[in-house]
Every structure is written in structure tokens, then in C-alpha cells.
Amino acid sequence: MGSAQIPTYFSHSYRPADRLLNAYFLDYFWDNGFAFAVDSGTKPLSTTQLEVMMRFSAAFVAVVTRRREPSYLCSPFIVYEYGLAVQAGKPRLVIAEKGVPEKHFPEATHTVYFDRDRLVPGSDAGEQVRGLGQQVARLAEESRPYTSIGDRPLGAVGVVLPRGRVYREAARRIEELIDSAGYTVQRVDPGDLNAVGAALRFDTMDFVVHDAGRASGWLLPFLQGRFIPAIRLVHQPSAGPPAVVHPLLRNEVLADATKGGPAPEETVVRWSTLADIERAFHRLPVPRRQFRSAEEGSRYLYSLGRSLDEAVFLSSAGEDHELAMEVGRALDLKNVPLFHYQFRNTIPLGARWADQLDDLIRGSSIFVALISRHYLESPYCAKELATARAAEAEGLLTIVPYYLDESGDTSITSQGATLTDMRDAERAKKVAEDIDGLLLRPRQSRSPRRATPSDGPPAPVDIAVLTILLEEYQAVLALLESPERHFGRTDAERNRCDWHTGRIGGADGFRVVLARVTTGNAGAAVNAVRTIELFKPKYVLVVGVAGAIDERLHPGDVVVASQVVGYEYGAAGPGGFEPRSTRVWPTDDALTTTSGSVAATSPDWARRLRALPPDGTPVRPAVLVGPVASGDKVVDDLRSESFAPVLAQRPDLVAVEMEAAGVCAAVHDAGDVRFAMIRGISDRPMRGAAPDASRSGQTAQRDMWKAYAAATAAAYTEFLISRAWPERPRGSA
Q1: How would you classify residue 269: left for phi > 0, otherwise alpha for psi between -120 and 50, otherwise beta?
Q2: What is the pLDDT of residue 333?
């Protein structure tokens, strides 16, 4: 980025349908001296990080598209970010689509409107959008004096906390966390400051950590009024009603913008234990994501709405190297992860390239073959294509052939395209547009093959996978190779759990039985016993969805249980429910250890995941290993009378579900059978009383995310079994 570029916060739609529109305006602003910075995508949402980015931007630009959003008709999150720009006093330009209500952007420094249908791709935006050129020139004049505002190292963080027992230990830990993140700690006693001294002191800090309870005095309004970014803590006793926070911190627009997502309606961190504080500080403000070129910004915009783990393997003959280079560059501009033996070779020096190629092909989602006479004559291309065909037969990838001449390969049955009458630049553009379109299509994990029936008593399996919801069952069934529906000859063998058998990891891989069991611990236990007795597995896995307790988790992430805590066993004492911690089952040590290692060393495990999040945001699911609570109730509120005592006794719990305790009891009674559980996060229970509307929103969030959460759990299960299982399959050498 040149020194003349103005660092500008860019608020935009994340929907795939708006990618070209965003890129259209990005190019125009770059040519006029503006460098856009965007939300870094912290999980869950960090309002402090957004405030820091806004504070250290010279200007604010929003491209607002029309949506069918109730009462907004546009993105509520853009409205929220606009509010931050107003608070920060930044020069603001709103570029709104025709039909977007003006009321959401009061006091905008500049506003222009556009008609999407009249914009001509490749044309000058300043000529196409009435008044845009004039308004951009005015915005540059107002913000150019602050061009260097973002060029600064990590600075100081103010710590302003009450004295007393509650914060004594917490303050020490907070200072340690700030120091380890690279900031300088500055303790501040507000009693020593007057208005001028407070302004001089706080204005020099990157952000402030303070208590934002109801009795926060003059400090909170002062920080809000001067737009000083802050981590706002509110101590929440483990028992009792939610602590009251200052009304300045309630934000209805933020609540609407994050409905069905992980963010709270208040910009505060409620904490009961040090673990709550530590989780909040995992989201310490991160460096701003500012594009260094228009090309980098364009690549980012093209990735919106697409899984970042979707990879393409480009296969071509050496004689077609120039075209492959053109195709590689075109895909790279659309931010498509790519492997090509010459253009983008990621095989480490000294590695056996043949083995690495097989893994790269099988780990890709699309195999692009540039078919020519030279391709059909090359033994290397033949090997790549044979590996791709085998992977396609397993449902791992899609082959997309492009024919460069008349020498077609009739053995390729996948639909392709003929590029014989095009120049290389046109060919490359066509391939890149086709592949980008394929990657944007919402897909389930994989299309399950038609299962064939099997008769007679089943052979013992390696692994029994138990699911509950239909979405969970379908996600795992889609991953089974050569699935067969079980048909028993006797009443004892009758298919009570919709059993399917199949393999994971190839023809010589692990034999798996998939079952769908009854909701709740009691029913799950009965079905688990039936499955164990009939199929005699060495391992039992529960795979499905769960609710998050740990704040590091957000919908779509994966939890691997290190323990199962049956929390509903206890006594009704004078103070309410008193849980007893006697019903705790450890999971298999080897598998738990392996799960943690795989998540750390193989961050590309999600490459096999074909589903997209329901909100279209390109995220990589995280994996967390920890104890999981199991009961017979849907937990919508972690502070409810029936669950708050559990959390007080076990603050290390990371998630909650409803079947594992029953399955663990069945596994324990079966003897030499090992247990593990892998669940995707479908929702985040609330942390305090809320009106019925919020409870219905909780159900809506769960319904929206459960299919994707089931797909992430199934994908991680398959990766673990096929790549990192701690034992060999039965019958293998």
C-alpha cells in the first residue's frame, strides 16, 4: 500500500450475490486513494476489536444493498457499524442501493444511491453512480490528514477496576493477559483524574478494561462519549438474577444483527470465574485487516460465501503449461485454493511427490483436467486422473474436464466443456468462472449412494456410530462407503435402529455400523445395548449436535468429549437443586489425545466438508476437547435453576447434550468396548433470563444451524477414522 492511501473501514454485505458489486466499488476507491480494512472475523464477535478498527481508520465507507430483512430492508450489521462510525466521529460515505431506507443512516456525511440493474461491469463507478465522484473527492479531502492514523505499534491498555475482594485476583490475571498479548499495562485510578486529565490519559490508549456494572459512575459515559474502545466486564454471581448493566450498553441493532448467532445484545463480558475472563481475552483486538492492493481486496471479496477449505487440483500436461498458468492466475484472483505441479506446488522439498499427489487429489473438492492429445499421452496425467476417478467413486471430489482439442476421452463421464475455439485468456476466464460457481453451490457433505440390502447375521464391526436427529444420521450416512441396509433373519436381528453398515477409509478401512437412536438418555441406552449386542463393535461413537457452554465455541465448531458428566443426578435441597458428581464417564484416552493432536496439526481437516454455513460466511470450524454435560432437558438458559448449580460445580464444561450419559452406561455394562463423542455446535444457550421472544430465537438458531453442525461433526469423524484412528481395522495385518 502506498503512503497516499487513506485507511478506510469498509462495511459491506457478506452475501455471495453481492461480491461483484463490492469488488466494483473497491476498485474505484483504490484508484481514488482509499485502502479498505474489513472485520477480521474473530469468533465469536468482538465488539472491542470492531471499535479499535473504527477508531484507527481515517474514514468510513458502506456499500448497502437492499434485503428482505424485517424492518431494516438492508443488513442490520451494516447499520450497527455505521453507528460505530457516528460515535467515532469519522467522515462517512454511504453508497446505498435504491430502496434502502434513509432513516438507518442519519447524519451521514455523504450519501449516494445506485440502481444495481443499471451498473455496467468494467465501467467507471464515478460515471455510473450519480454524485459518487464528487462525494469521494470530498471524503478524501476530509480524511487525508489522518492517513497515518493506522500506522502504529501495539500501545497501552488502561486497567480501571474496582477495589475489593471480587476483582483482587481477577485484576492480576487481567494484567497478565494484557502483557502476554504484547500491550503495556497502565493502571488508572479514576479518583486521581479530572475531565482534562482523563481525556489526555485515555485518548493515548489502544483500549481500556473496566467494570461496566450499574454503579460504574462517570467513567462509562465518559469512555462512550469519547469513543474509547473497551472490554467491559460485569461480575455475575454464579447464583441469582443477571447483573444489571448500564443502559448505554444495550444495543437493539446489534441484537437484531446477531440474531441466531453467537453475539449477545449487550457489549459486555459477564463473568463468574477467571475462566470466563480468560475466554473473553482470547478475543483481544487483533491487527486490522487492511488490503495492500486492489487485487488482494478483490480476492477477499470473491471468497465470501464460500468455504475456505474448498480446494482445486489442476491437472495438465507439460505442453499445456502456458494455459495452466493462465488458469491458475484466474483462479488465484478469485481466491480459490489451488494445487498445480508447476504453478502452485506445495509439496515439501525431499518428500515423495507421488504419495503427496495422491493425498492432494483426495483432499481436493474439485479436480480440473485440461484434456488434450498431450494429456492423454502422459503417464503422469493418467495416474492423476486414475486417482481422481477413485476418489470420485468414493464421493470425495468432482471431476470437471475441459477439452482443448478434438481428442476427447470417452472414459470420462463427468460433464465438461469444450474450449477448442477460444484463446488462452478466454479459456482461463471460463474455467475460473465455472469453478467459482461450483464452489458457491450449497452442498451437503456428500450424496449418499443407494444402499443395498444384506441378509444374515452381521459380521462384527470396528466402530458403531450412534446418531439421534435425522440431520445427524444423513450426514454420517453420506460418508459411508458401500453402505448396506441391515435386514435380520430373526426378531432379535430385526432392524430397530435403521442400521446401515459400510466402510470409512477405503476397501481395507474400518467397518462401521450407523444407527439412529431415540432422543434422551434412557432411549439412547436401550438402542446402544441393541447395537452393541448385534454388531459387537470395539468402539461406540456418538456423533451429532450439542449446545455450546464455552464461549470460544460458535455454531459449526466441533467438540470432542474428554468426559461425559451426567448432571441430573442429585438432590433437591433447601437451596434448590444440588447435583452430585458421581456419574462421570471418561472417554477413550487414546482417541481423545489423538483428536486434540489432529485438530492442531491438520487444520485442513475441514477440506472434506461440503456444506456451507447457513449465513454464508467462510469460516474454518474450530475443534475443542473438553468435558460435556449430558441430561434429559434442552438447556436454553445456562443460568436456569436446574443448570446454574451444575455450571457452578463444573465450570470446565464446554458443551451440553442429551444422550451420552445413557450410551456411556450401556458401554460400561458391555465390558471391553470404548466410547467417544464428537458433536458439532448448533446453538449457544443464553446466560440469563430473557423474554419469550429470545427463547424462540434460541430455537430458531438451533434449527438454522443443526444441519451444518451435524455435517461438521460427521466430517471430523470421518477424517479422524480414515487418517488418525489409534488402532488398525479388524482383520488387517
Answers
A1: beta
A2: 73
